[in-house]
Specification:
The structure is a single chain. The protein is mainly alpha-helical. It has helices at 4-11, 16-42, 46-69. The chain has one domain.
């Protein structure tokens, strides 16, 4: 039976396929951030612009969460 340190180390390892999925997710979040920034910059209604900016911030948070999962 593996010890706790080994179990923790094993959880930090990703297969190539899992890393590919994470890369794809990060690309999608990056694209969503860019689209939100573009839409907000074109929006004339301040209230809608703020909502779009908030959606963009959520995509930034998702991107950063995914980034934090990658091995260093």
């Amino acid at each position: 039976m593996p010890n706790n340190a080994q179990m923790t180390a094993d959880r930090n390892l990703f297969s190539d396929k899992e890393l590919h999925y994470i890369k794809d997710f990060m690309s999608w979040e990056l694209l969503a951030m860019k689209k939100c920034a573009d839409a907000a910059s074109r929006c004339e209604d301040q209230e809608i612009q703020q909502l779009i900016q908030e959606a963009g911030k959520k995509h930034i948070q998702h991107f950063e969460t995914l980034l934090a999962q990658l091995p260093s």
